Amino acid sequence: MNITADCVVIGSGMGGGMTALALARKGLDVLLVERGERIRREPQNWSPEEVFLKRRYKPAETWLDHNGRAYKPGVHYVVGGSTKVYGASLPRFRESDFEAAQHDDGVSPAWPFRYADIEPYYAAAEDLLHVHGTTGQDPTEPWRSGPYPYPAVEHEPYIADLAERLRAQGASPAANAMGIDLRPRGLCIRCGTCDGFPCLVGAKSDAETCAVDPALETGNVRLLTGVRIDRLETDPSGARIVLAVGEGADGEVRITAAKFVVAAGAVNSAALLLRSADSKHPDGLANSSGQVGRNYMMHNNAHIAAFDATRRNDVVFQKTLSVNDWYHDGGDGKPGGVMQLVGKVQGSMMKLEAPYAPRFALDEFAKRSVEWLVMSEDLPSPENRVTLDASGRIVTHRTALGVAAHRRTMKSAKRLLHRVGYQIIGTQWFGIEMNSHMCGTVVAGQDPSRSVLDGYCRAHDVANLWVIDGGFFPSSAAMNPALTIAAQALRVVAESDIAA
């Protein structure tokens, strides 16, 4: 199969979907390539057993850690990418996240642009993603040029009471910025299967719903599914890509375009560039700096379940509240982290962490527990990286940085929850398999000797290559990354020559 387009976008997650939509609205002929297929709307979308225990929507492939141990990564190769099952929490990064900051384990570097540069595109992305939120509750929130498009998601009584109890202890609980369709006549039914599940009713603001499908409606975008791009080939000078080569169900696929956008996710984007090594790029495409695959970051994450035997948690849609008080100062003058409610956990979902516990006991625990994500910043290190083994298999090397700050945030969160009446607090630490919020593998920067991309995600070495996903992040911050990826995609198309 031979295909031609003005621009090919590889990957249909938040970065690829938003880039395709923005380019389509500029009138470009865009080919959007996704290695997976659309997730069918089916009863299994809302089944904890199917989604979590049987991994129905995750790939069968395995990656290796730095010790050579095989593991199943928490990625999703489907139209919309991992946003199909994300929790739809869409906060902005704080102004300080774009500046250099000192941490225990090193420096979180400055970005090649500032908050003010991306702020208009945060607003545009919030509009496209139907973000519900409010201002004035969170002491760490950045300035805004306008209000949220829609009001914050209302707390259910249990969460509203929890917010008051937290506030009585001196905390500043704030409504989460959420991407769900609670607009007038919207589709959201506030079910208990949002965070971690595909949305059966199409009410989650995922990349398929809010970017890919609107892009297709313009008539300027074609969607090619079931095709994995294996390499990018350059012209004899090595300065421009001329061909993307992949494999589909019917054999080899060859795509010619004037411009190429890689948006396959931080790990797979780096792996594609490494697989595309040639005589002009012996260490991988766009890798004269040696930074492709390096600075691999994930957030330092843990789930905590706070149990109160005296109160029954009857909440359905739980993920409406955060406490960000330690974001700028974890107690030692250095950045800390956040605690953010997650979707209500059911007993069957606890089986992965407690496989020998009786199901009835887990169900009873879940009836009286409230669950949080505690998240803090990981730091970039050239030794934390993505490589390929001799067979081309992905290998991830990671020693978490910022662990001390994360543990301090965990202690602060647990002390706060104990003070508001929870007697037992269980912890689930995230391992490398979770791959939560991967970023940093094709870092953007002003110095071509120390970065892969410029401030508009264009490769320093290859004139017609852009990488627009979490891979461009110079730092991970301690906020969910999806909105920042979406905003940067809109900024790149609006301000750079990608659409020229």
Automatic annotation (TrEMBL):
Ranges for domain Glucose-methanol-choline oxidoreductase N-terminal: 77-299
Keywords in alphabetical order: FAD, Flavoprotein, Oxidoreductase
Record keyword Metal-binding present: no
Domain Glucose-methanol-choline oxidoreductase C-terminal: 435-489
Record-annotated FAD-dependent oxidoreductase 2 FAD-binding domain positions: 6-40
Organism (species): Microbacterium panaciterrae
Domain of life per record: Bacteria
Name of this chain's protein: GMC family oxidoreductase
Entry similarity comment: Belongs to the GMC oxidoreductase family.
